[in-house]
């Protein structure tokens, strides 16, 4: 069973590269939604439909993706995912020419299928290459760091491509990002085609019939972990989505006069994603020494306190260091509520790897199929922000934005429960080896 460590270097690099692609395309949906909100004059909840379409595709494709991974292996599944992603982003690009909201939503939906397939491949593969446990968690955190870097870059680049403000933007303004995404997909397809990726050996014969009565859903800690992923992705996406809308709302003038509210709001949101990058780098550094359970417990508890503070503290102005693209770091004046929400990026940064690691621990041969179910629940990234924005629309006054964060409070409380109680494997009697 001895294998040369260097044999796994290239597959690890490829998987981390794909992790970045997931974030690049997914995070493009949020600023695109803001552009469409003003271009087509639609309410907040409709502005998040692109994000919803992208994530709801996970609910449809998640389980089939797990079966596909189990049947065709990592490499073929990744290649199909990349091809589908190219088509999805291509349709979104065409929506700019057609000036069609519906065409854009179709493209976002198809791109979501691709992101689901890629996530299904990347997470178990990195966990597997790291040998599971703390080392597997460390590799997932490293992949998450590159994921955050690409996610931060999209927000910043979008701001640079819209110099006249979000209210005057058109889909065509972000064509360069669309073309970049298409180029990334094309390049990745070539790289994956030429890369040797270790596959799980398939067992043929009567054994599979013997164990067919079991599956990932036979494990309580996996079921609760899948729910944890649902709420986690909603937390990760919902916090900056609503925060940016709150700060740049021209009717509320939250930031006061004399500033470009759209630019400042974009910088604040980008800083949230940048802190996720910082947190994931720290998580990768300590991942082999600190258990996923301890990490998830701490960040869930701290995130919960920060959210409650943001909701109930008076809107006192503070100077917040923000990452402002080509201008580097600088100070902007924002309500303390916004500063606390930005800091949650450090907490959400390492949640994905911790939850995935805990949920699949001890699943053995059921891991690949479990990953597909896991991906179906990623649709929370479209549902929870939609719920938050609906609360904003039906709540009178600007405080409706902060009121919507009750959704985040409930979600973080569940993650804390999962870390402390729900992640324990109480089904160790189920056979997990061939």
From TrEMBL:
GO terms for molecular function: transmembrane transporter activity. Keywords: Cell membrane, Membrane, Transmembrane, Transmembrane helix. GO terms for cellular component: plasma membrane. It is found in: Cell inner membrane. The keyword Metal-binding does not apply. Gene3D superfamilies: MFS general substrate transporter like domains (1.20.1250.20). The keyword Zinc does not apply. The chain crosses the membrane at residues 7-25, 45-65, 77-95, 101-122, 143-162, 174-194, 222-243, 263-283, 295-318, 338-360, 372-391, 403-421. It is a multi-pass membrane protein. It comes from the Bacteria. It holds the Pfam family MFS_1. This is MFS transporter, FHS family, L-fucose permease. It comes from Alistipes timonensis JC136. The lineage of its organism: Bacteria, Pseudomonadati, Bacteroidota, Bacteroidia, Bacteroidales.
């Amino acid at each position: 069973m001895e294998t040369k460590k260097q044999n796994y270097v290239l597959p690890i690099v490829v998987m981390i590269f794909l992790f970045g692609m997931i974030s690049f395309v997914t995070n493009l949906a949020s600023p695109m939604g803001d552009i469409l909100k003003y271009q087509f004059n639609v309410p907040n909840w409709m502005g998040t439909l692109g994000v919803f379409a992208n994530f709801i595709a996970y609910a449809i494709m998640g389980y089939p993706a797990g079966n596909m991974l189990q049947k065709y292996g990592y490499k073929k599944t990744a290649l199909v995912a990349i091809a589908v992603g190219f088509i999805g982003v291509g349709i979104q690009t065409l929506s700019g020419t057609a000036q069609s909201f519906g065409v854009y939503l179709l493209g976002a939906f198809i791109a979501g299928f691709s992101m689901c397939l890629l996530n299904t491949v990347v997470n178990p593969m990195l966990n597997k290459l790291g040998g599971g446990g703390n080392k597997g968690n460390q590799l997932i955190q490293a992949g998450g760091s590159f994921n955050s870097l690409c996610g931060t870059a999209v927000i910043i680049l979008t701001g640079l491509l819209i110099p006249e403000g979000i209210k005057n933007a058109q889909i065509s303004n972000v064509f360069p990002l669309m073309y970049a995404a298409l180029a990334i997909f094309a390049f990745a397809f070539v790289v994956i085609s030429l890369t040797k990726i270790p596959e799980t050996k398939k067992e043929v014969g009567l054994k599979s019939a013997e164990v067919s009565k079991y599956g990932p859903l036979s494990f309580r800690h996996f079921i609760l972990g899948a729910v944890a992923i649902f709420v986690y992705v909603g937390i990760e996406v919902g916090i900056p989505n609503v925060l940016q809308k709150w700060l740049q709302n021209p009717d509320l003038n939250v930031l006061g006069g004399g500033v470009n509210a759209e630019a400042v709001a974009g910088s604040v949101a980008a800083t949230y994603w940048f802190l996720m990058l910082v947190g994931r780098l720290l998580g990768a550094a300590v991942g082999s020494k600190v258990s996923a359970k301890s990490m998830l417990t701490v960040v869930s508890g701290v995130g919960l306190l920060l959210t409650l503070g943001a909701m109930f503290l008076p809107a006192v102005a503070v100077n917040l260091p923000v990452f402002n693209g080509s201008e580097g770091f600088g100070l902007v004046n924002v309500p303390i509520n916004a500063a606390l929400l930005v800091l949650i990026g450090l907490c959400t940064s390492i949640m994905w790897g911790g939850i995935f690691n805990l949920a699949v621990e001890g699943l053995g041969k059921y891991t690949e199929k479990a990953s597909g179910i896991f991906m179906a629940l990623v649709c929370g990234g479209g549902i929870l922000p939609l719920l938050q924005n609906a609360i904003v629309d039906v709540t009178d006054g600007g405080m409706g934005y902060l009121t919507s964060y009750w959704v985040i409070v409930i979600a973080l409380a569940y993650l804390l429960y999962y870390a402390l109680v729900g992640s324990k494997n109480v089904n160790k009697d189920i056979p997990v080896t061939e």
